Amino acid sequence: MGALIVARRELAGYFATPVAYVFIVIFLMMAGALTFTLGGFFARGQADLSPFFTFVPWLFLFLVPALTMRLWAEERRLGTIELLLTLPLPQWQAVVGKFLAAWAFCAIALLLTFPLVLTVNYLGEPDNGVIAAGYLGCLLVAGAFLAVGAAMSAMTKNQVVAFVLAVAVCFLFTVAGSPIINDFLSQRMPVLAEVARGLSITERFNSLVRGVIALRDVVFFGSFMGFFLFVNAVVIDHRKAD
Amino acid sequence: MPALIEIERLTKRFGDFTAVDDVSFSVDRGEVVGFLGPNGAGKSTTMKMLAGFVTPTAGTARICGKDVVDSPVAAKRSLGYLPEGAPTYPEMTVTGFLRFVASIRGYRGGEADERVEAAMQLTQLEGVQLQPIETLSKGFKRRVGLAQSLLHDPPVLVLDEPTDGLDPNQKHEVRQLIRRMAPQKAILISTHILEEVEAVCSRAIVIAGGKVLADSTPAGLVAPGRSLEQVFRDLTMPKDAA
């Protein structure tokens, strides 16, 4: 399968440059620091990882676009996009391959937070099923942000523009269901308030963190990623030679 | 039997600018066609359309009878393409890169190894096979690009400036390689170097302003008693400036 071959090459590429190490180290340091300080991991006196999970989407909001901004821009800068897209490989497989590599990379970063799971199991008796659901939520949020970031990277040659656009769009979907937006919209455009709640990444993530794995939430994340990957493929098809 | 490369009334417009204007020609097995023209004449754009990287505004291009727009993957399987500037992934080693291309082209295990070996032998890359491509000189990088295009022993080769950046000995090697492969393949090369056309090409197509100005054997172009350089200037210089 061509997408997997592309993904394997990409993933190896992350570890051939400082990108991977900087990303992982910063992610682990910040996740740890936030969990134990702002999250009040010890002070809460509860054996669960919700202080950690609360911060993960906010960390991803900035770190994931940093990962995706170079996804297509780098291929354009090196000219390798012309090589990749003239190999006998359907274009969508190149798009999916790049996405899968970035997603696998985020999964590795998440896996490396395992000392938190060990700690909480040492200190008390947490519900490990809930923790697993929380990790699934983190992975799905990462995937959603990656799909957005990859699509933004396809739209512009400029990495800074790609980063800013990706952060902005991800932020929009993160706060879509928040009380501020909700109150604002329900007073003026009640229909949109409903739509905004429906598109909120945070609400679905929160219910996963509580341990509820609902099919419709998983389907939501799946279609969200699918939609942005489709946008990515269309944009690449139209703008590959620009 | 139709020619291996068929181009019919191929046109590409970027906004108001017509880069390639109603170009038609075909290349048969056993032919080496030199694509000549000043910078910006439309050589690279024509080749990019042939490789399926740029979508034509009008007209058709076929490789081994497969339309590059309607069945891109099938057309690309029969094509070895060296893009302008010979782009490669700088962090990969020579073997790593060629293995990647081999696996995308569907070779597995021992067969993939053989293909990579053979391609490195043809382009004399064995000495640097484990070096990252970014550490190589310009001439080696170009040969890595060339190796990638020859790996699957394709019936059709489209090489955009294959000898650019090579020293005289390497140029000689590449020309010999092209001559050796010529009987089994249809080869289209673009070049600025007029002596190269006389050295390896059985036919020369002169293009300027997106239009084909001449299509004949190198000998046919220069007769009677004029140098190829003179002919090139007469054909491609604007009349009032000449």
TrEMBL record, chain A:
Localization per record: Cell membrane
GO cellular component terms, A-Z: plasma membrane
Residues annotated as domain ABC-2 type transporter transmembrane: 52-182
Keyword Magnesium listed: no
Residues spanning the membrane: 12-43, 55-73, 94-118, 130-148, 160-181, 218-236
Cross-referenced Pfam families: ABC2_membrane_3
Principal subcellular localization: membrane
Stretches of the chain forming a coiled coil according to its record: none
Signal peptide (from-to): none
UniProt superkingdom: Bacteria
Membrane topology: Multi-pass membrane protein
GO molecular function: ABC-type transporter activity
The name this protein goes by in its record: ABC transporter permease
Biological source species: Neoroseomonas lacus
Upper lineage: Bacteria, Pseudomonadati, Pseudomonadota, Alphaproteobacteria, Acetobacterales
From TrEMBL, chain B:
SUPFAM superfamilies associated with the record: P-loop containing nucleoside triphosphate hydrolases (SSF52540)
Domain ABC transporter: from-to ranges: 5-234
Family statement: Belongs to the ABC transporter superfamily.
Entry superkingdom: Bacteria
One Pfam family this sequence matches: ABC_tran
InterPro entries per the UniProt record, alphabetical: AAA+_ATPase (IPR003593), ABC_transporter-like_ATP-bd (IPR003439), P-loop_NTPase (IPR027417)
Alphabetized UniProt keyword annotations: ATP-binding, Nucleotide-binding, Transport
UniProt-recorded Gene Ontology molecular function terms: ATP binding; ATP hydrolysis activity
Alphabetical list of CDD domains matching this protein: ABC_DR_subfamily_A (cd03230)
Coiled coil: none
Protein name: ABC transporter ATP-binding protein
